[in-house]
Amino acid sequence: MSVAQATSEQNYHTSLDEIDHALDELQAAKPRFQQTSLDEWMRLVESCIPTVVDSAREWVDTACKAKGIAPASTIRAEEITAGPAAALRYLRLLHDSLGDIAKQGRPQLPGPIRQEPGGRLFVRLAPVKRRHDALLFTGTTSDAYMEAGVTAESVAAQEMPLHLSGKGGSPRISLVLGAGNVSSIAMTDTLTKIFQDGCLVLLKMNPVNEYLGPIFTKGLAPLVEAGFLRIIYGGAEAGQHAIAHKSTDEVHITGSNFSHDAIVWGPPGPEQDRRKRENDPVLDKPITSELGNVTPWIVVPGDYTEKQLQFQAENLAASVMNNVSFNCLATKVIVTWRDWPDRQRFLDKLQAIFDSTPPRKAYYPGAADRFREFAGKEPTGVPEGTLPWTLIRDINPDEDPKFVERESFVCVTTETALEADSPQDFLKVVADFTENRLWGTLCAAVMVPQSFRKSGENKKLFDDFLARLRYGAIGVNQWPGLVYGLMTPPWGGHPGSTLDDPQSGVGWVHNTFFLDGIEKTITEGPLTASPKPVWFPTHKNPEPISWKLVDFYAKPSTWNLVRLLGSAVKNGL
């Protein structure tokens, strides 16, 4: 471990000289990285699993303390599932794929490749049999919707990254500007860059969760010891120095589109405007990104049972409340049909969950100011330092466009009711609305009754509707947060973004089957499920289940699977 590493772990500050030294160490490790064989890559992945497991308790306890989550709170499960459990699932799936490459030349897909009547190819990404996903995520499937022109033959002919064979060219150094909200993002972004993109990584921790840096240093110790990873700390000055450094070959950021534009085009103002207009970026290096979203929850009108409405209200509430809504995939706009008979009843169910759930510490900087702007009021009636769960019904985007043009990144959710002649016409109207009015291309949720899709005509209308949606991830009856957690689907904005209009970002992470040519993923689940998902805010005892999920990914075995499923049934009914 370098001096820069040791110093930064003690005081969360890395001097500019130490950043230079860390990059020098990464440069020195390039020949070793270039010569790493597939077997050695597999051993590196495998060796990270026990070190992540060993750091898991400290990881969760530290994150909970920083976010104001009490030791006995059910909310602790969030930090388990979106922290070490997510990282361990990624490592297990990656190890599976590398083993397939060693034996058969490429990862073995978990399900069929099918050609739809419209000509597009669908590639099954989940459930993964070796990970027992059919039992862990009951009734859920995830498919890649491939770009036009991709065929089954071209999928089979896709080449694996050359660095996995030890025969690649000179490796790049990627600066990963870590996310400050979800703890597994910085780790899985780093792992994606190293193992899948073939880069050595300089990870700069976000000041909001820099306390995780020392834990990540221990969790990813095999990569640090190999010289393939260095972790630094600091604010804007440290970030700018690392970005501009001659040894940094590319940049990856998880953050806001404003941060992205400042990196690419310079600070806001006339000079940034000129650079955009003349396509004259400040940054002369490749940049990939994930930049947020005004995430819609689209309710296709139809006949839902009382149980389905209640379950989906809890599902929607989870998408808002998880991580205090400091998520780029938190629902920001509920899109309904004005004439849907159950519209107010469904919103009442959501409001009831908001009213019965205590507020949480608003730990992310600037949250109170953003709440005042988007809620239009002071955060009264709640303890100091917290914010109330807020639903604003029937907004008019024409009168107040901020709700659809900017991500609030705070616990304010709106509903807009669209005019349409029929439920079928609603699909066209809402597709136009998401394409022309909503900012972002990261993800969307679509809630649809099975009865709507029974007729062949409606099924085609719905399939065409999904094809129109320009999002990287679509969850049908599922919160897209599950797509992030599955790890086999890629995670990122819809392809086609540009530097001057990045929307939700450029490029993918995760994608553990190494697939090229994906346009979006469609993940579908049932309208209800039992036992209750651990991420639901109404779950009474999710922590024991979450730790057993960590145990299962740490040591996959029939016994640990039985213990996990038994705990889910015992604690989740």
Automatic annotation (TrEMBL):
Keywords: Oxidoreductase. The keyword ATP-binding does not apply. Residues 271-283 have a biased composition (Basic and acidic residues). GO terms for molecular function: oxidoreductase activity. Residues 263-286 are annotated as: Disordered. It comes from the Bacteria. InterPro entries: Ald_DH/histidinol_DH (IPR016161), Ald_DH_N (IPR016162). This is Aldehyde dehydrogenase family protein. It comes from Symmachiella macrocystis.
